[in-house]
Amino acid sequence: MSASKPLIVAIVGPTASGKSDLALRLAEEIGGDVVNADALQVYRGLDVGTAKPTAQERARVRHHLLDVVDPTQRFSAGDFARRARAVLAELADAGRPALVVGGSGFYLRALFEGLSPLPRAHPEIRAELRARAEAEGAEALHDELRSLDAPSAERIARRDVQRIVRALEVQQVTGLPLSEWIARRPAPFQPLSALHVGLTLPRAILYDHVAVRVERMVGRGWVDEVKLLLAQGVPYDAPAFQAIGYRQIVRCVRGELDLPEAIDETIRATRRFAKRQMTWFRKESQVRWFDPRVLAEDMSDVLRLLRSSG
């Protein structure tokens, strides 16, 4: 691993595939830092339901981009890319390898490839779409988005009114789907070179891991965590609470779902999300795939790959 060009490793794959554990072990092995690329671990106070690294794990390896925004703030892929690039530049100056870890393909694309500048907001059209969302429901607009821009509909939750409205607004204003705007990389952007390591499991095993993970997080106090955030003044409709799992737990706290229903809905939604993640990452030709069950016992293959790339 050259001191003049410190290694950057992106560890990707679906939720519950063991990315964080591998990153921690690799960071210890090669003397690197972990850079979070999870869209929820950036939020302060969202610890249990994001499986955020513990204080003990952070003491073992330095982590970056955890707990950087409040749950009421929006944090876009562009925001992440700007902050992550600054962190990577600091680590490069220090000669330290970086392990960028997360399941958000959109965040990782923004970091490594860049995002095209999007059209400016059109207040009148946005207001009309918001009025429709209130009258017809977010799901109805999501169905419309799916018919116009299926890739955007796949990555936007059915109740995420803000992102649904923005996607439809872009479509109406420009006549082009948001996904096409995102796919266009601006000419001045310099792509960032990294080694991409992917973790994959048979679907049945991954789905079992998802169920165990959700049950474990509930057992560790996920409901109490949400209650505390609400008591601290975080509103029900805060951006952080629109995420899978938090959305269901909030509904449970509000009495709209009982806990078993919230758990079941979270497991099903997380499995669907994991499937979308694998679809996204399988299209990334640069990813080298590994079975985390093998790496749990022996990391030699991935270490050889890292050393040959250094």
Using only C-alpha atoms, the radius of gyration works out to 20 Å
Could you name the CATH topology of the largest domain? Rossmann fold
Total domain modules = 2
Q: So what's the overall shape? A: globular
Helix content: 40-55%
**Secondary structural class:** alpha/beta
Low-confidence stretches: none
Helices and strands, in order, run as EHEHEHEHHHHHHEHHHHEHH
What is the count of helical runs? Answer: 15
> What fraction of the residues are assigned to beta strands by DSSP?
5-15%
Largest sheet at a glance?
6 strands, parallel
Strand order of the largest sheet: 3-2-4-1-5-6
Distance between the termini: 4 Å
CATH architect. name of the largest domain: 3-Layer(aba) Sandwich
What's the total count of β strands?
A: 6
What does this structure look like?
55% of the residues lie in helices and 8% in strands. It has 310 residues and is an alpha/beta fold. It has 2 domains: 8-115 and 186-309, Rossmann fold, CATH 3.40.50; 123-183, Histone, subunit A. Strands 3-2-4-1-5-6 form a 6-stranded parallel beta sheet, with helices on both faces. Strand 2 (33-36), helix 2 and strand 3 form a beta-alpha-beta unit. Helix 3 (77-94) packs across helix 4, helix 6 crosses helix 8 and helix 12 (246-253) packs antiparallel against helix 13. The radius of gyration is 20 Å and the shape is globular.
Which helices and strands occur, and which strands form pairs?
Layout: E1 8-12, H1 19-30, E2 33-36, H2 55-60, E3 63-64, H3 77-94, E4 98-101, H4 105-112, H5 123-136, H6 138-148, H7 150-155, H8 161-174, H9 178-183, E5 195-199, H10 203-219, H11 222-231, H12 246-253, H13 259-282, E6 287-290, H14 292-297, H15 300-309
Parallel strand pairs: 1-4, 1-5, 2-3, 2-4, 5-6
Helix pairs in contact: 3-4, 5-6, 5-8, 6-8, 10-13, 11-12, 12-13
